[in-house]
Amino acid sequence: MATGLGKGSGPSTRRAGLPSLPRSDLEEVSVYSLSTPAQKGTDPSPRIIAERISTALIVESDADWDMRVKDIMTLVAEGVQTIVDWPFQPINNTARFGAPMAPSPYGENWDIVWIGHCGSSNHGNGRYYPINDTTVPPKDHEFRFADIPQDEQHRPGTRMMYDLTGSVCSTGYAISYAGAVKLVEYFKESQENLDLKLMGVCRDKIDLACVGVYPQVITAAESDSNIDHAAGEVAGQGGVAEEVLVRPGPAIQYSARVNAEAAMQGLRIESWRAEWNSTWAMVDDEWKEISFEEAREREELALLMASEGGGQKGTTDGKNS
Questions:
Q1: Residues 138, 113: contact at Cβ < 8 Å?
Q2: Residue 188: strand, helix, or coil
């Protein structure tokens, strides 16, 4: 895929192009797409255990993410690791999986990382980790359907990872192998919808490490389509299928749904459609929102200064960019 994120649906799985989480004889990362109400209410934990999957990323079929998702998830990994592994101690993974495993960029002690939702929060409690991120939306483009972290914790232009105590919608979330083992036990007697069950255990189970991410990495795109019809089509009068306009998910600047085809045709980010025309940069020692035009001017000035200062030796000829 253009964003480097592989996807499986139904009985098949494929490894995702996210920062890898190597795990001895376990599968690395699998991505599942849930497209029917029955699937959306199904706990994936038994399958994760049966197939010995280290990390499963479950996304709903209407999910959307930024074309720069791999860069975004690198920052998310830093935040998640800081939340779950502090204070940092040597981890004995052999006891959990039966064989030594390489360190994970997301840390060793997480169970659920909820990266796609309608709203989630830590309700002002627990650890949180904000990090400057040029891809996050300005406030007027944030997606705020339900609770979100408090303003004093979430600074503009940052993406925040935190101890999650409540979340709504299961647009996209990751479950670790260790988390799946716990969830199978917790869900034995629950008859609620999956997102409500996940919200409940993250709120109530003290031995379950749930991490929220805001702004969301994954959101649900608006669509006229019905899950009973082929992707990209809706039923018109008389049952005739009509083509549907591709819409981006909220809070996503360079929508994969909108721009993936252009990227696969070789077009660069300058030719992609942006949902807002600004980014974030350090200006006078302050992290600020700036326009694309100002960002280009600052980049050109930086290149000029580097050239005049002998920095041109370190630039590339563009072949690898």
A1: no
A2: helix
pTM of the model as a whole: 0.76
> Which residue type does 224 have?
D
Distances in whole angstroms, Cα of residue 157 to Cα of each of 140, 154, 246: 12, 9, 27
Contact (Cβ atoms closer than 8 angstroms) between residue 109 and residue 152: no
Asked if 111 contacts 178 with a C-beta cutoff of 8 angstroms, the reply is yes
Least Cα distance to 215 among 66, 36, 27, 14 occurs for 66
Q: What is the pLDDT of residues 220-272, one digit of tens each?
A: 997 665 444 444 444 344 444 445 577 899 999 999 999 999 999 999 999 99
- Tens of pLDDT, residues 46-79: 999 999 998 899 999 899 999 999 999 999 999 9
Please say whether the dihedral angle defined by the alpha carbons of residues 60, 62, 63 and 67, taken in this order, is positive or negative.
positive
As a whole number of angstroms, the distance between CA 245 and CA 247 comes to: 6
